[in-house]
Amino acid sequence: MRLSAAVDRFLAAAGVSDATRRAYASDLRDFAAWYGDGPLEEVDVRVLADYTADLGRARAGGKLSPATIARRLAAVRSLLRFTLGPAQVPEVPLAPRRGRRLPEAPKPAEVDDLIETAGGGEGALALRNRALLELVYSAGLRSAEAVGLDLGDVDFEQEHVHVRNAKGAKDRIVPLGEEAAYWVARYLREARPRLARGAQNALFLSIRGQRLDTSTLRRLLRNPHRLRHAFATHMLEGGADLRVIQELLGHASLSTTQIYSHVDGKRLRRVYDRSHPRS
After folding, report:
1. Rounded to whole angstroms, how far apart are CA atoms 228 and 235?
2. Are 169 and 250 in contact (CB under 8 A)?
3. Catalytic residue list contains 35
4. Is the four-CA dihedral 269, 271, 273, 279 of positive or negative sign?
5. Is the CB of residue 191 less than 8 Å from the CB of residue 127?
6. Does residue 168 register a pLDDT over 80?
7. Is 142 assigned a catalytic role?
8. Which of 28, 39, 38, 30 is closest to 78 using CA atoms?
9. Which one of the listed residues 2, 21, 167, 243 is annotated catalytic?
10. Which segments of 96-153 does DSSP mark as H helices, in order?
11. How far is CA 115 from CA 136, 143, 202, in A?
12. Residue 262 annotated to the active site
């Protein structure tokens, strides 16, 4: 199969999420511009190694980061896996090693200030914003997961939130904290009825009565993902282990969660110093 036809077929597939389609379209176009419209079956380890080497050279827009190179290789591998099957995917590691960048998480007092500032004010929208931010921090939600919640996903009686994973992994159940429960209940009681138009099932509504999109969170906080990092960091500092955090964040692999292991290491040092007789 020619590369151009394979790319079109892959991007049009029903099983490919909108987010993956947007991300991979640009990466696959880059590969197609480099490889040409040759047979996809001839893309092997040698081809990918040559492509990786080319990506590693400085281009007109500047040198690509290791993360960008790894993402583009992942897009090509996904195309091969979809079109030709897993056995035809060269799994030899080719991407340059990425520098370990630890997430910058605000301290608890900073989180309080962020939420107070971004979610402050009067009126239905202010109350919605406060409830939204409290829930993102309380449950460690991605932005897309937060705006994707429906009314039935928050269970006040069982004190949990049903989260539909924004990255295609399995759904998860996350505890609902008291502060978030208070603000979400207030929003549902005092603000949402004033925003609702018709039978919209979304938990968080816009001023027009429609489901929010992630741009609302970005307007409230320049980087709302920091609240998710804060959730994970503060849980670890409070004594939770990495596997619990993995489940709460919805990470498919523990290796993804291990970016927080520096926090766990600091906690272990404190426990060691406090507990060992010769510390």
Report:
1. 11
2. yes
3. no
4. negative
5. yes
6. no
7. yes
8. 28
9. 167
10. 108-118, 124-139, 143-147
11. 10, 15, 22
12. no
Name which of 112-116, 128-132, 155-159, 198-202 the model is least confident about: 198-202
98: pLDDT strictly greater than 60: no
Q: Is 225 considered catalytic here?
A: yes
Angle at 39 between CA 35 and CA 45, to 5 degrees: 65
Angle, helices 124-139/225-237, rounded to nearest 10 degrees? 50
- Could you tell me what percent of the chain has a pLDDT over 90? 25
Cα gap 223→214, rounded to integer Å: 11
For 14-28, letters b (16+ CB in 10 Å) and e give eeeeeebeeebeebb
Q: What is the pTM of this model?
A: 0.60
Per-residue pLDDT tens for 128-149?
Answer: 999 999 999 999 898 999 999 9
Residues 195/209, Cβ–Cβ less than 8 Å: yes
Catalytic-labelled residue, pool 162, 194, 225, 267: 225
Q: Are 277 and 169 in contact (CB under 8 A)?
A: no
Distance separating alpha carbons of residues 192 and 71, to the nearest angstrom? 40
Write the CB contacts of 178 (distance below 8 Å, at least 6 apart in sequence): none
